[in-house]
Design a protein that fits this description.
Layout lengths: L2 E5 L12 E5 L9 E10 L3 H5 L20 E8 L9 E4 L6 E5 L4 E2 L20 H13 L7 E4 L5 H12 L4 E6 L2 H9 L4 E4 L5 H8 L4 E6 L3 H10 E9 L19 H5 L3 E4 L9 H13 L7 E5 L4 H9 L6 E5 L1
Parallel strand pairs: 8-9, 8-11, 9-10, 11-12, 12-13, 14-15
Antiparallel strand pairs: 1-2, 3-4, 3-6, 3-15, 4-5, 5-7
Length: 334
Amino acid sequence: MPRQIVLASRPSGWPTEDNFAVTEAGRPELVDGQVRVRNLFMSVDPYMRGRMNDTKSYVPPFQLGEPLQGGAIGSVVETRSPDLAEGDLVLHNLGWRDEAVLPARHAQKIAAIEGTAGLSPSAYLGVLGMPALTAYVGLLDIAALKPGDVVFVSGAAGAVGSMAGQIAKLKGAARVIGSAGSEEKVSWLREIGFDAAFNYKAAPVFGQLREAAPEGIDVYFDNVGGDHLEASLAVLSTYGRVALCGAIAHYNATELPAGPHNLGLVITKRLTLRGFIVSDHQDRAPAMIADVSGWLRDGKLFHTETVVDGLDQAPSAFINLLRGHNTGKMIVRL
């Protein structure tokens, strides 16, 4: 029988494997308009941690005893829809399970894209998917990147951050700086084109950022919050812009964290801080695909995946993602 991962209990602080359970799922008969998909790859992403809390947000919380959800790539194995045929590869949102039954209209058929030959289908969960769109929108639309800008990206070795830094360079940034949590990740960032990178665990963020950008930064792409946001407010130039994408430093906090102590700089420097959710910007996906596929074809954009095998390992993959054990996109291969 197909299996699925359910939320067994809500985490308090850092999630543990006890918060998850593997259960058997039924194999319901299809009705008109539905397809059955055998999942091949699933995504684990930081935003999923917020959905494990029973709080109102921009998406409903996961329900106890119910299977988790998230991006997945699979092959259609049964269809009662004229729009999808057996064997079609599709992108959908019913990950965390071996098989998914869903309306065909909720499954996006993956079509061949020039410049992407040879890529694993999992690329549509990363370099050609939501993380790349997040980076693209955050830089170009939210932070209004301009040629010549100096850009700082926190959490730069992750799926979104690594795309954000490279896109900034490809769109004309004069200098791109990234932070990461190990010397190995710092080296990788320099290999893929970051002008400077530092290990935020080695010394305070402010000093390292100031050294990397002595003349200040124009754009901050924030995946972390906390000390990274506070340091960036201090280093941003007048009229600097901040794209607030995530705050992973706070996701597992059991008490409300202290806000940046220097928010007054937002006023005196006339800074713009803007949060965003990528699902509000799906209209930008065609432009992102066009740019990213071209850069891949020309060898100008690089990506990597941290791949974990087996549905049973999905909870540990998610926990390790939150602890920063991945480089690039964290993928579970089913």
